[in-house]
Design brief:
Elements: H1 9-13, H2 26-39, E1 48-49, H3 51-58, H4 62-74, E2 78-80, E3 86-88, H5 93-117, H6 123-138, H7 145-158, H8 163-170, H9 173-183, H10 189-205, H11 209-238
Antiparallel strand pairs: 1-3, 2-3
């Protein structure tokens, strides 16, 4: 690692990593590692990344690092810097509106199908996730809420019986994860989120597809309002620098 590694956000996020697994290529390993750091927020928007520094931190050549950066660039997670290297791209207001608009259609439809197609025994895992989430919320163990929230939605949409639809939703997983981090940090939203989940479950039991679909759409669009408000707050705090999160 470079002497400045202690002050390098990327190098710090890579500390303690195991050696690259034998079953995947080095390029894929770098891609997975950097993408994970971006998605969970270890690497903030604007963080600069240099091929040589990352290659040295991982103890590999620059070629797989270059391959990974090009793939991340195609996914709009990083962008080339005029000063050289790449930097982490923040989320724009357009990203928010586009992503939540697509989600509101895909996820509400998946929930509708789930309400119609599920077996009674399929609902037990959803109930378990709601209880698990509430227990962590009540005891102040907030660090796991994001993971449990995601697992609840995955279980719900999996009951749609439509692998193609689930794949379309999962293609947005990384953006969704980044937005949920914003939403669940807002006071009261973590509790309201689980109340929504409980409502979805109750109407799933009644096989009320219209109500489940409506609840999921409202749940998602409420999240959009929260994230857009976060953009507005950031804009007021930082002026023109607030068009990204």
């Amino acid at each position: 690692m470079t002497p400045s590694g202690e002050h390098d956000p990327l190098a710090k996020s890579l500390k303690g990593l195991d050696s690259p697994p034998q079953r995947i290529s080095l390029g894929q390993y770098v891609y997975d590692t950097v993408k994970h750091a971006v998605v969970i927020g270890d690497m903030a928007p604007g963080t600069r990344m240099v091929e040589s520094r990352l290659a040295e931190a991982l103890g590999i050549s620059r070629t797989p690092v270059r391959e990974a950066f090009h793939k991340l660039e195609r996914e709009r997670l990083v962008r080339r810097s005029p000063a050289g290297g790449f930097f982490v791209v923040g989320l724009t207001q357009a990203d928010v509106e586009e992503t939540f608009g697509i989600r509101s259609i895909l996820e509400s439809y998946a929930a509708r199908l789930a309400a119609l197609k599920h077996r009674e025994s399929d609902l037990a895992p959803l109930e378990a996730k709601i209880r698990e989430y509430q227990e962590h919320l009540d005891t102040g163990q907030l660090d796991l809420l994001l993971k449990i929230n995601t697992e609840f939605h995955d279980l719900l949409y999996g009951l749609s019986g439509s692998p193609r639809l689930v794949k379309m939703i999962n293609d947005l997983r990384d953006l969704i994860f980044r937005f949920r981090q914003v939403i669940l940090k807002i006071e009261g939203m973590a509790r309201l989120s689980n109340e929504d989940h409980l409502g979805m479950l109750e109407h799933m039991k009644k096989r009320d597809a219209n109500k489940v679909e409506k609840l999921v759409r409202e749940h998602i669009l409420r999240g959009q309002e929260i994230v857009l408000k976060a953009f507005d707050d950031e804009f007021r705090s930082n002026g023109n620098g607030g068009d990204r999160l």
